[in-house]
Design goal:
- By secondary structure, this protein is mostly helical.
- The protein has one domain (about 30-195).
- Helices cover about 75% and strands about 0% of the residues.
- The chain has 9 helices and no strands.
- It has helices spanning about 1-25, 30-50, 55-60, 65-95, 100-125, 130-140, 150-165, 175-180, 190-195.
- Helix 1 packs parallel to helix 6, helix 2 (about 30-50) packs across helix 5 and helix 2 (about 30-50) crosses helix 7 (about 150-165).
- The chain is globular and about 50 Å long.
């Protein structure tokens, strides 16, 4: 009984994430979709390719529910911790009579959305009855590729402004061409041709 309740709770978390991302991308304009796509692929490079764990997000159906939920929970924790840190930063700046620039808030939210796309992708393996919803998410992203030049330029501008504000060095090591190349990818469980024509 407890195991059944636990599974229902896990499914509810996955359903909610998929519903929110699908809904948000459904009403977003092309540049916003492309911005999230660019962040999705930046995270793929740093979190999956560089760590040798890309297989689980590329082919989630090859993995057990237990493995998928463990990975999902890890991404969920990263997202939740980042949200807490954002709120703490905003509160600390307010105490100093300052406000966090809107570009930093927007970038944090776009990064969270990028993480959530990967959570949804894992969710296609955890809850196979939501697979078509996840396919639609990737359709929205793949269909925004014409807007990538503007989106990536805007993200690079965030990097520049952050450097001016904090004195930090470059955040993103990818060149434009490398970033565009990454953005051609969709998980192999979804047919790229189908996505691009959706």
């Amino acid at each position: 009984m407890l195991q059944w309740i636990g599974k229902k709770g896990e499914d509810a978390r996955v359903y909610m994430c998929i519903k929110e991302i699908k809904g948000e991308l459904g009403v977003a304009d092309g540049v916003q979709r492309a911005t999230i796509l660019a962040m999705v692929q930046l995270l793929r490079q740093s979190m999956f390719i560089d760590t040798g764990t890309e297989g689980i997000v590329d082919r989630p159906l090859d993995y057990s529910r237990r493995e998928l939920m463990q990975f999902y929970g890890g991404l969920e924790n990263i997202r939740n911790q980042a949200a807490i840190e954002l709120q703490n930063t905003k509160a600390n700046m307010l105490r100093l009579g300052m406000t966090l620039p809107q570009f930093a808030i927007d970038h944090a939210k776009n990064t969270a959305r990028g993480l959530e796309v990967w959570m949804c992708t894992l969710g296609a393996g955890i809850c196979p009855n939501r697979r078509e919803d996840v396919r639609e998410i990737w359709s929205h992203l793949a269909g925004s590729s014409d807007h990538l030049p503007v989106a990536i330029h805007n993200i690079k501008d965030v990097e520049r402004k952050t450097g001016e504000m904090t004195g930090a060095g470059p955040i993103f090591s990818l060149s434009y061409s490398e970033w565009f190349g990454l953005c051609e990818y969709v998980p192999s469980m979804f047919e790229p041709r189908t996505l691009m024509s959706a």
